[in-house]
From TrEMBL:
Cited Gene3D superfamilies: Winged helix-like DNA-binding domain superfamily/Winged helix DNA-binding domain (1.10.10.10)
The UniProt record lists the keyword Protease: no
Superkingdom of the organism of origin: Bacteria
Domain HTH marR-type: 11-147
UniProt name for this protein: DNA-binding transcriptional regulator, MarR family
Organism: Jiangella alkaliphila
Any GO MF annotation of the entry: DNA-binding transcription factor activity
Pfam name, any one: MarR_2
One GO term of the biological process aspect: response to stress
Matches recorded under SMART domains: HTH_MARR
Length: 158
């Protein structure tokens, strides 16, 4: 077994700063989303995935894979969203085992109402404090980390 490569002071500072940034930014965006739209960030993410596809419908397994959620967790969340009228379920005519999650008119109205203030908050809290070079560096860093994780980790829904 290989010896642990501990983080040096510089790496530990960067890692803890990243974790803290993720925590405070996520909390601020969640508060803004809940206060202004009565949606959770998880609701918003589901609605984003549905609006990103032409027919506003996805199989639960596709949605779970995209969100990297276990199917059971997603199923419970979707049930709550369905009770609120944000999404619906439709049987798949070609496959009796599966169902589609579909965006309802209420769900579309909710995301269309929430998106402008969410984007304003993302810009205010995040992009307005970054330079163009920062954004390019962050894009590069994120791409490399995502590629590494996805190459070595399996999605929990699979």
């Amino acid at each position: 077994m290989a010896e642990t490569r501990w983080l040096d002071d510089h790496e530990q500072g960067a890692w803890r700063a990243y974790l803290r940034m993720n925590t405070v930014l996520g909390a601020a965006l969640s508060r803004q989303m809940q206060t202004e739209s009565m949606l959770s960030m998880q609701d918003f993410e589901v609605l984003v995935h549905l609006t990103d596809v032409d027919d506003a419908r996805l199989r639960v397994s596709e949605l779970a894979r995209a969100m990297r959620w276990e199917k059971s967790r997603l199923s419970h969340h979707l049930s709550r969203m369905e009770k609120r009228g944000l999404i619906g379920r439709e049987e798949c005519s070609s496959d009796g085992r599966g169902a589609f999650i579909v965006l309802t008119p209420e769900g579309r109205a909710a995301i269309e109402a929430a998106a402008p203030s969410h984007v304003d908050a993302v810009r205010r809290h995040f992009f307005d404090v970054l330079t163009d070079d920062d954004v390019k560096a962050l894009t590069s860093i994120a791409g490399r980390v995502i590629a590494r994780v996805e190459a070595t980790d399996t999605c929990p829904s699979e």
